[in-house]
Amino acid sequence: MMRRFIPLFAGAAFGASAMWAISTVMEPAQAASVATYRQLATFGAVLEQVERNYVTPQKEGDLVENAINGMLSSLDPHSSYMNAKDAEKAKSRISGEFGGLGLQVTMEDNLVKVVSPMDDTPGAKAGVLAGDLITEIDGQSVKGMKLEDAVGKMRGKVKTPVKLTLVRKGADKPIRLTILRDTITVEAVRSRVEGDVGYIRIISFTEKTQEGLEAAIAKIKKEIPEDRLKGYVLDLRLNPGGLVNQAVSVSDSFLDRGAIVSMRGRNPEETRRYEARPGDLTDHKPIIVLVNGGSASAAEIVSGALQDLKRATVLGTRSFGKGSVQTIIPMNDGGALRLTTALYYTPSGKSIQGTGITPDIIVEQPLPPELQGKMETTGESSLRGHIQGRNETDAGSGSSAYVPPEAKDDLQLQAALKLLRGEKTDPAFPPRTDKAAALK
């Protein structure tokens, strides 16, 4: 049962789990004020002086592009301008396959910060960790570099090398790695059977996530008879986001009714609300959703919806807290403007911007000795210039983004399995469905 929705986009194509909405119709711009025209005249005069008199010639077009990005970066960490080349790259990445290192990154203090390395990719295999700061790429400092340019330098032909210099918390000197690029295929969904429990991990929300989810559920049902199937673990840890329509569709796959998410912009009439439709693919089996500091954006839409509507119990640690929506607006020059236009809200009306999803059951995952003091907690609230969330407090958002490679060492997964099998009890599981009535 493939669910279809308006093609909204959310994802970390360039950075930390940006929520994407593609705009094909541009609203007519209002006339600028006299003061604005005067400032634009001043800008033009400054530009002319730089082009004529700066000590070294500047590449044509770069000054204006950098000025545009300077303006946008003063708004928030997620608004930016993409030239025609970058915009085309962004379109190609929606397919989920490219040559690169497999690192989800954002920009922080003029350095490239690793949000999370993707499983089984060159970056992960080389030992790059969440929280690492990339200071140089192929010997070139990233300071002053746009995030899109830094990402572009890490992408390239398969089997070609790229040299990274990393600064890691707890390390006494920079770490230098030479990594061979490989084809990065973003595998959206992985699944397996854990005895009498179905385990589904959504790695990112790509065009094929819903298709992968349906296949995973069908496979689990085939392997575990209905009368033995205790329920499902939906693992959204280290999931940086993806396509909004897929997040809505995935949420709907577990729901019969109720609001999934609403997006509210500057103008009240632009509010969008997405509702679930009848049809639970899991036949109402119990669900536990796993989240941590690497769960962001579209992953928070799903966990927030299932939590608020009491369809699932959320277990783990506080999520990233990325709750803003970026609209991609095509420009006449072939480029595109990525502009923050809205915040999204869970069914209960809560904004997770700067706060994240608080699990119903907190289970900390300790770091192994070799990573202690070296893995930094990341979250939206730690990004300089982020939009202040309506519910944001000094506690901020985010938490550890570590998941053990072996299931036996995964305390969060093991806690979920024990709850589903009745080996352990908690007041939050199963959730009390009567509390969700007002949200439906």
Tell me what you see in this structure:
- This protein has helices at residues 34-53, 62-73, 84-93, 122-125, 147-154, 209-223, 244-253, 298-308, 411-420; strands spanning 8-11, 18-22, 80-82, 97-100, 103-108, 111-117, 133-137, 140-141, 161-167, 175-180, 182-185, 189-194, 197-202, 231-235, 259-265, 272-275, 287-291, 313-316, 324-330, 336-345, 361-362.
- It is 23% helix and 25% strand.
- Residues 1-26 have low confidence and may be disordered.
- A hairpin with a 7-residue loop joins β9 and β10 (175-180).
- Strands 1, 2, 3, 15, 16, 19 and 20 form a seven-stranded mixed sheet that branches. Strands 5, 6, 7, 8, 9 and 10 form a six-stranded antiparallel sheet that branches.
- α6 (209-223) runs parallel beside α7 (244-253) and α7 runs parallel beside α8 (298-308).
- It starts with 7 loop residues before the first strand and ends in a 20-residue tail after the last helix.
- The protein has three domains: 8-86, no CATH class; 97-185, PDZ domain (Pdz3 Domain), CATH 2.30.42.10; 189-324 and 341-439, 2-enoyl-CoA Hydratase, Chain A, domain 1 (Alpha-Beta Complex).
- It is built from nine helices and 21 strands.
- It is an alpha+beta fold and 440 residues long.
- It holds the Pfam family PDZ_6.
- GO terms for molecular function: endopeptidase activity; serine-type peptidase activity.
- Residues 1-31 form the signal peptide.
- Belongs to the peptidase S41A family.
- Residues 373-407, 421-440 are annotated as: Disordered.
